[in-house]
Design brief:
Number of strands: 2
Helix content: over 70%
Order of helices and strands: HHHEEHHHHHH
Oligomer: single chain
Distance between the termini: 35 Å
Strand order of the largest sheet: 1-2
Structural class: mainly alpha
Number of domains: 1
Largest sheet: 2 strands, antiparallel
Number of helices: 9
Shape: elongated
Length: about 290
């Protein structure tokens, strides 16, 4: 009974994958170009307005009438200026809100994935313990101790970072520079550290599964998250006047995306293997994130 309950908990952890392991569309890498686009569009609109209103003057009691140019007090003197300010402000506001949302999205999925994976590892330990209770003479205490140590490391290292708070800090003057740099730092390093810990957990789990005669977890991914230097990426972004930042943003989106897709493969294969060994009916698992 305990074994069936533990296996169902693992199934539930996998079903939650659809909500936690969100695949972020790659088109978000175009976000840095939004500011440039706003500037270009603003300039074009301002030029058109300036040309179209340059010869219109205001006559008391008459209204706007054709004039000879930008005379003092003409609408052409002021209207393009306020139009540029208004359009520029609106464009900047939209660009800022998009950045805030993207930062929130990236941090939030980090928190949800780490939390789900923490539950999965804990439930995996419970499952292994429940199976070992039925197998006399099989000692898995050493292996379980290693797994429990991994869980403690996860609780200490993979603490939740408030997505809402950090997103808001990115729009507060002076504070936003340090907030953005820190967000770029932990989003670029946390997943790699998480994956390294996960690889160790899988290796320890395979040893216990082998002792219990339950097969093992599929091999680790062949293209793990690379060790990306925060300092190097920052310098390259500054030197290239922000152009390298587009690639940097690309890595912050695709590295987790690839990590999540790998999870789909090995989690589904693992649970299918365990269900086959324990003769438990399979329930529908989570779909691959899309």
């Amino acid at each position: 009974m305990a074994e069936a309950s533990a296996l169902e908990n693992l199934r539930q952890d996998i079903r939650e994958r659809d909500a936690s392991d969100k695949i972020v569309p790659i088109f978000w890498i175009l976000l840095p170009l939004v500011g440039v686009g706003v500037s270009v569009i603003t300039s074009i609109i301002a030029s058109v307005l300036a040309i179209s209103t340059a010869s219109m003057t205001f006559e008391p009691g008459v209204g706007f009438v054709p004039g000879l140019g930008l005379a003092p007090g003409s609408v052409g003197t002021f209207f393009p200026f306020f139009a540029v300010i208004g359009i520029g402000f609106l464009g900047g506001l939209i660009s800022t809100l998009l950045y805030v949302y993207l930062f929130y999205l990236l941090i939030n999925r980090r928190n949800k994935h780490f939390a789900r994976q923490s539950r999965f590892t804990e439930d995996m330990i419970k499952y292994l313990q429940s199976v070992s209770g039925k197998k006399k003479g099989v000692d898995i205490e050493t292996g379980v101790s290693s797994l429990e140590r991994s869980v403690r490391d996860v609780r200490y290292e993979e603490v939740e970072k408030s997505a809402g708070l950090w997103a808001i800090l990115t729009i507060i003057p002076f504070v936003n520079l340090f907030a953005i740099l820190y967000i770029l730092y932990f989003l670029g390093t946390d997943y790699r550290r998480h994956e390294i810990r996960e690889i160790g957990f899988v290796e320890d789990t395979n040893k216990v599964l082998d002792k219990l005669g339950l097969g093992g977890i599929p091999e680790r991914r062949l293209d793990p998250i690379p060790d990306r230097s925060f300092v190097l990426y920052l310098v390259l972004t500054v030197v290239t006047l922000g152009l390298f930042g587009i690639y940097w943003l690309y890595t912050l989106i695709t590295d987790p995306n690839n990590h999540f897709k790998h999870h789909v493969k090995w989690e589904d294969e693992l649970i299918t293997n365990l269900e086959g060994k324990t003769k438990q009916p399979s329930k529908q698992l989570g779909k691959e994130p899309s």
